[in-house]
TrEMBL record:
GO terms for molecular function: ATP binding; bis(5'-nucleosyl)-tetraphosphatase (asymmetrical) activity; glycine-tRNA ligase activity. Homodimer. It comes from Pseudozobellia thermophila. It catalyses: tRNA(Gly) + glycine + ATP = glycyl-tRNA(Gly) + AMP + diphosphate. InterPro entries: aa-tRNA-synt_IIb, aa-tRNA-synth_II, aa-tRNA-synth_II/BPL/LPL, Anticodon-bd, Anticodon-bd_dom_sf, Gly-tRNA_synthase/POLG2, Gly_tRNA_ligase_bac, GlyRS-like_core. The keyword DNA-binding does not apply. Catalyzes the attachment of glycine to tRNA(Gly). Substrate binds at R98, E215, F262, E263, Q264, M265, E266, E369, T370, S371, I372, G373. This is Glycine--tRNA ligase. The keyword Isomerase does not apply. SUPFAM superfamilies: Class II aaRS ABD-related, Class II aaRS and biotin synthetases. One of its GO terms (cellular component) is cytoplasm. Belongs to the class-II aminoacyl-tRNA synthetase family. Signal peptide: none annotated.
């Protein structure tokens, strides 16, 4: 697993997807730059989300709010008081952990034991294996499940009651029951605020303390009434936004999974109080469908319903994805009630109410939120797509099986040889295709090598111009995943590629 993840990181660098930030100065921890291919993949993911959320829903519109916001925003949102991570230091290894993440890692070990039992039983029972029944009845597995649930419940309770001493105790107990760090020597758990501060204004006495936004959502809440009125929006309606957010993450590891500067894609859906359960279920389902539409395997997703709820939520679930280091949160779906708008009303003294023209009542709407990290989605797509395949002749190929709709380059065009007018024809094809797609030209090395390069790059199609092309205006088009080749007319290329890559 660790090796798989290392391969993902090095492939991302080698093929121009993700670089460490400021690498020539030895990098900046948990900050990354998107390179020439990465920026295209990221844009395509963002567009795929935007199309599904904004373009296809006539009651959802987008905004692009500023990163800087009035500082009172973060008092109203609760971030000044409550945006804290519980930290614990291991005195022996001098390593710092997020206490809740550490507990979840212990639980992950228990879950791995369950998976092992399941795999063993599946092998033993073959076709007759009923996983659901096994999970419900096997005594050992049931015990593991109960253990995991009770640990998470206790963690939730302790954090909610701000009983940090109990969180420490829990970690000490877990370390004895299920040794992981090899140490019993922990500091107390401390809370640490995750917001980055900065100053607005030139002179020291007039400068205003600002924060870099730790989430994009608040830009939507403070604009709720402006959008509702100018767009004449009727409840239920949504506002969507993508943009940078900043968190001074303490345990920043796992590549672009947890960054200090990252991008979110959020949508707040404004609804009538009392309808939140129905919309919560609906958005859970809608968002899961969006993920599955990319074809990355149903078995790689699961819901995780929160027992421990944030101060603003009355229900919350994560969509978890199977990353190279296990199932982890990819997207959150939160029923936020009227916490945000109500709180902004209080702090600003401005009414943030919706007037229902039918019932002639005014009320503060409830909010249903979907929030996904663009970088985390990038990692999910990239890691899931990277494969090492053995071919019929025994050799191996590295192939990045990106969903075609997301691939940075849609087609590469090759002249079979660098003479006889073939490069000119290849360039003509590029001239024609480049108005519709990102395409590239490659004439270096044997065609087989060029195929391998594009496989590793994630390009879904390779188009080869050969001598026959000069006679009948046909080319071969080779499909990345099946490696099949077919002869098609140059005039049909656009249609074939559109069919495969259009959103
Ligand atoms: P986690 O528990 O992993 O820290 P969170 O519950 O704090 O995440 P939210 O505040 O709900 O996350 O943010 C919504 C989404 O934003 C997450 O599902 C994740 O995809 C993304 N996200 C949050 N923090 C980061 C980060 N530091 N780096 C990259 N993506 C992030």
């Amino acid at each position: 697993q660790e090796d798989d993840f290392k391969r993902v990181i090095s492939h991302a660098k080698e093929y121009g997807y993700v670089f460490q930030s400021s690498e020539i100065y030895d990098g900046l921890s948990a900050v990354y730059d998107y390179a020439q291919n990465g920026v295209e993949l990221k844009k395509n993911i963002r567009d795929y989300w935007w199309k599904a959320m904004v373009q296809l829903n006539d009651n959802i519109v987008g905004i692009d709010a500023a990163i800087f916001m009035h500082p009172t925003t973060w008092k109203a949102s609760g971030h000044v008081d409550a945006f804290n991570d519980p930290l614990i230091d291991n005195k022996d290894s001098k390593k710092r952990y997020r206490a809740d993440v550490l507990v979840e890692d212990y639980v992950g070990k228990i879950e791995a034991k369950i998976e092992k039992e399941v795999a063993k039983a599946a092998k033993r029972f073959g076709d007759k294996f009923d996983k659901a029944q096994f999970l419900a009845t096997n005594p050992r597995v049931v015990e593991y499940q109960e253990q995991a649930t009770s640990i998470l419940k206790r963690l939730g309770r302790s954090l909610e009651n701000e009983d940090l001493a109990d969180v420490k105790k829990l970690i000490e107990e877990l370390e004895i029951a299920c040794p992981m760090s090899g140490s019993k020597n922990w500091t107390d758990v401390k809370q640490f605020n995750l917001m980055f501060g900065t100053k607005l204004g030139a002179s020291a006495e007039n400068a205003m303390d600002l924060y870099l936004r730790p989430e994009t959502a608040q830009g939507i809440f403070v604009n709720f009434l402006n959008v509702q009125k100018t767009g004449r929006m009727k409840i239920p309606f949504g506002i969507a936004q993508t943009g940078k957010a900043f968190r001074n993450e303490i345990v920043a590891r796992q590549f672009i999974f947890r960054m200090r500067e990252f991008e979110q894609m959020e949508m707040q859906f404004f609804i009538k109080p009392g309808t939140q359960q129905e919309w919560y279920e609906k958005w859970k389902e809608t968002r899961m469908k969006w993920h599955l539409s990319l074809g990355m395997g149903e078995e790689n997703y699961r819901f995780h319903d929160h027992e421990k709820l944030a101060h603003y939520a009355d229900a919350a679930a994560d969509i978890e994805f199977r990353f190279p280091f296990g199932f982890k949160e990819l997207e959150g779906i939160h029923s936020r009630t009227d916490f945000d708008l109500g709180s902004h009303e209080k702090f600003s003294g401005k009414k943030l109410q919706y007037f229902d023209p039918e019932t002639r009542e005014s009320y503060v709407p409830y909010v249903l939120e979907t929030s996904i990290g663009l970088d985390r989605m990038f990692l999910a797509v990239f890691a899931n797509s990277l494969r090492e395949e053995q071919l019929e002749n025994g050799s191996f190929r590295t192939v990045l099986k990106l969903p075609a709709v997301l691939a940075p380059t849609k087609a590469a065009v090759f002249p079979l040889v660098k003479k006889d007018g073939l490069p000119e024809v290849a360039h003509q094809i590029i001239e024609d295709l480049k108005w519709d797609f990102n395409v590239l030209y490659d004439e270096k090395d044997a065609v087989g090598r060029r195929y391998r390069r594009q496989d590793a790059n994630g390009t879904p199609f390779c188009i080869t111009v050969d001598h026959q092309t000069l006679e009948d205006n046909t080319v071969t088009i080779r499909h990345r995943d099946s490696m099949e080749q077919e002869r098609v007319a140059i005039a049909d290329l656009k249609g074939i590629i559109h069919k495969a890559v259009d959103m």
